[in-house]
Amino acid sequence: MKKILSLIAASALLVSVFAGCGGSGGSGSSAASSAAGSSAASSAAGSSAAASSAAGSSAASGKTFTVGFDKDFPPYGFVDDNGEFTGFDIELAMEAAKRMGMTFKGQPIDWDAKDMELQSGSIDCIWNGFTINGREDKYTWSKPYVNNSQVFVVRKDSGIKTFDDLKGKIVSVQTDSSAQEALNDEKNAAIKKSLKEIVTCKEYNTAFMDLQSGAIDAIAMDVGVAKYQITTRKADFVVLEGSIADEQYGIGFLKGNTELKDKVEAALTEMVKDGTFATISKKYFNEDVGIFK
Question: E-assigned strands of 25-100?
Fold first, then answer.
């Protein structure tokens, strides 16, 4: 009986030993798996961080240059027959962006909301037949690159030949435009007073339709835009001799943003030197209208 009891005890001890070994091995295996998992997770996290860093570097090197412009202001900025943004200023900006190692993005804006767009950071600059004169202290400006003047456009058969003939007439002008500012200038007070009414429009396509229909008698606007509209519309409109303001176009940046302004000017300087500026200008004006130095 004792012998049998001894055998049972020994067997129990043996089972206990093996069970202990099995438990120890399972625990070790679990720890190894945990360590391996931690190592893999750590490695994956490291790879992910490296990838994020690389993506960040890539994004930084391809920073977007967002240009605010009026899409109804040909030939400086407009929508072509293929639905693409184009124009003299747009092509200049695209080329400048390429030379700065940045991605160009054209951002159409309401002209009377341009300051809000710039201050909010949704655009980097205003580049679209943007007059410097009278706005010198509101923006950080590039050097002027084109001369401009504000003129009156009338129907050829209107009988209006001079500024004096505008007496009692209705003139349209774009909201918050240089032409509007020119008409409000003290030196043009006599002309303004002689008019029957000054009406405002969002963009000049509407103004030309109103002029064609006889709803208005004249449009006050930029001479370059006026000549382009007359040519492309093949309509009987004429520009009256003389101007109500002579001015210059520049690129307007947020006040204090000299870093981006300097980069853009450096790109424009290269474009003037290698003839790219003149080539783009001749495409839209049949001559080099540039004055950038």
Answer: 64-69, 72-73, 77-79, 85-86
Q: Which of 19-23, 100-104, 138-142, 191-195 has the lowest mean pLDDT?
A: 19-23
Coil, helix or strand for 96? helix
Q: Does domain 149-247 have CATH number 3.40.190.10?
A: yes
Distance between CA atoms of residues 141 and 261, nearest Å:
7
| Cα separation, 135 vs 109, whole angstroms | 19
Residue linked to tokens 């001799």: 241
- pTM of this prediction exceeds 0.85: no
Domain ranges for the chain: 1-52, 64-145+250-285, 149-247
Provide the 8-state DSSP code for 63.
-
* Residue 212, burial from CB neighbour count under 10 angstroms (0-12, 13-18, 19+): middle
Q: What are the tens digits of pLDDT across the range 200-252?
A: 999 999 999 999 999 999 999 999 999 999 988 888 999 999 999 999 999 99
